[in-house]
Amino acid sequence: MGVVNVTPDSFSDGGLWFDEAAAVRHGLELVAEGADIVDVGGESTRPGAARVSLEEELARVVPVIRALSAEGVAVSVDTMRADVARAAVEAGARLVNDVSGGLADPDMPRVVAATGVPYVVMHWRGHSHDMDNRAVYSDVVAEVCEELSKRVATVLAEGVAESQIVLDPGLGFAKNAEHNWAVLAGMDRLAELGYPLLIGASRKRFLGRLLAGSDGTPRTFDRSDAATLAVTALAAEAGAWCVRVHDVAPNADAVRVAAAWRGAVQTSGREAERSI
Ligand code: PMM
Q1: Which residue lies with its CA nearest to atom 10 of ligand 1?
Q2: Is the pTM of this model over 0.90?
Q3: Rounded Cα distance, 29 and 174, in Å
Q4: What is the pLDDT of residues 175-204, one digit of tens each?
Q5: Which of 93, 145, 171, 219 is the most buried (most CB within 10 A)?
Q6: N-terminal to C-terminal alpha carbon distance within the chain
Q7: β-pairing, 75-78 with 38-41?
Q8: Which domains are delineated in the chain?
């Protein structure tokens, strides 16, 4: 999944694709580089970000989604608003990516149920302005699993089908670096919830912190793409269904490497069985 943030203020690419034509061009480039899905968002979720109005979000994303969909691109809409999700699907979006997992807008699950498209339910504890204060856990993996299970139960009760659901632990959303690493290491427990997993590590602060210089200054996001790539390879190996990334070409290659590796492991397993 390649990212097109149609925003002036997203963390790593804010302002780059704010213009409609630039956003569409970038979406097409991401597909050419190997993205299966292009995730279009009109609201920054960077820590501390303020919300945009419904009208502004619609004006940012709908024309871009319509244009990309008309080109045959599988578009997902990154939104917490049911009205935006509805308009996006009408404009051709084939997936709804809701970082709040239906918590920000109680109408979201019902609207997604009516559309029938896949629904990414992300682990979330509150809006960007104070999410860092909510990064308090005694066992982050257990609590993320438990809170996601509750969201799943709610969205199912609102009519979303099991087959629509994709889960995402929400790296960086009410999680510090230590929490993010624990969540990645606990992907097998998240997978036990029984739904495909999406992982969004690309260019996030915890990677910059890991790669900090000797004086403790975090590595800038534009120099942490190799770290994103490493997460992609490991997440794919751990069974992720999808990774959400900004720099598609090398990540698409990493996913193919992981798939070939898995395929070879399965083949050699079958051969070993035959020889017994
Ligand atoms: N992260 C961001 C935005 N949308 N969606 C999902 N499903 N998972 C994520 O981790 C996620 C997301 C923030 O990233 P950006 O603003 O740097 O693109």
Answers
A1: 200
A2: yes
A3: 32
A4: 999 999 999 999 999 999 999 999 999 999
A5: 93
A6: 41
A7: parallel
A8: 2-275 (3.20.20.20)
